[in-house]
Amino acid sequence: MALEFGAKQLISYDPQQSSEKITDSYISLVRGLMSFPLNFPGTAYYKCMKDCKKAMNMVREVLKQRLASPPEKRQGDFLDHVIQDMNSQDFLIEDFVVQLFFGLLYVSFDTISTMTTLTFKLLDENPDVLQELIVEHEAILKKREKPGSSITWNEYKSMSFTLQVINEVLRLGNMTPGLFRRTLADVQVNGYTIPAGWPIMIATSALHLNSEIFNDPLAFNPWRWKDRKSNEMSKNFMPFGEGMKQCAGAEYTRVFLAIFIHVLVTKYRYFFLLLRCFFQHH
């Protein structure tokens, strides 16, 4: 669901009209992503590489069709905006655009689906958090001039507690096991020298679960984000990486989760009661 929704927004993908099932390729890709790199038929890695190539060819074909179509027949999606910028930005070549959309589709599937599941679990286990979310989102509905209209950007930015909940879900979820970087100069760490040019891995989970930074780090406590300053967060909170190589889908993930929570708490009030009853009987 998350991947097809993301693909619709990014490239106007329609599973009913497409001959290729994009979901199948990405599911297989994720299964083999962390497998042992034995690239011969029958291994998970081999199938992963085949499905990776298949997915990228699918994106490339969509791009070529869109470039060949007249402007009046374009979809107005994110791909069309990128195509428009290709005329003025030299770095936006075909290969770069294909890689970009391949990556955006990946994060719209793997990260979001897992974080959505974790959000369900944590809200079910913490009714006080759920109740405050209900209060915040019902207030948004009451202030809305046109009942039933879509969420606006200003409404999204006003979801202060919702964004705290999302930060806490991302902190506990630790979707990225680590960030890889390369030292530009010799670095001194606790009496040891990491030479220039060496690759290093930053274990974000060790940072996010550090009791010296986050009090009671294993507890789900969205209120811990209420008074945190932005510079403090940038040093100690890296769910999407840091610096120039931050994940391109970072804000998309936050917006998706915020809208998901909005719909969940305003339209499915008894969902968590049913979910709890289901698990109790199974």
Structural commentary:
The protein has helices at residues 2-11, 22-33, 44-68, 78-86, 94-125, 127-143, 153-157, 160-173, 204-208, 230-236, 250-267, 271-280; strands spanning 179-182, 187-189, 192-194, 199-202. It has 282 residues and is mostly helical. The strands form two sheets. It has a two-stranded antiparallel ribbon with strand order 1-4. The chain has a two-stranded antiparallel ribbon with strand order 2-3. α6 crosses α11. The longest helix is centred in the middle third of the chain and has 32 residues, at 94-125. The protein is globular, with a radius of gyration of 21 Å. The two termini are 25 Å apart.
Write the layout of secondary structure elements.
Elements: H1 2-11, H2 22-33, H3 44-68, H4 78-86, H5 94-125, H6 127-143, H7 153-157, H8 160-173, E1 179-182, E2 187-189, E3 192-194, E4 199-202, H9 204-208, H10 230-236, H11 250-267, H12 271-280
Antiparallel strand pairs: 1-4, 2-3
Helix pairs in contact: 1-5, 2-3, 3-5, 5-8, 5-11, 6-11
Put the structure in a nutshell.
The chain is mainly alpha-helical. 58% of the residues lie in helices and 5% in strands.
Strand order of the largest sheet: 1-4
Inertia-based shape:
globular
Number of helices: 12
**Helical residue percent band:** 55-70%
Instruction: List the uncertain runs.
Output: none
Counted beta strands: 4
The description of the largest β-sheet is: 2 strands, antiparallel
* Backbone structural class: mainly alpha
% residues in beta strands? under 5%
Radius of gyration: 21 Å
Ends: how far apart? 25 Å
What does the average pLDDT come to? 83
Order of helices and strands: HHHHHHHHEEEEHHHH
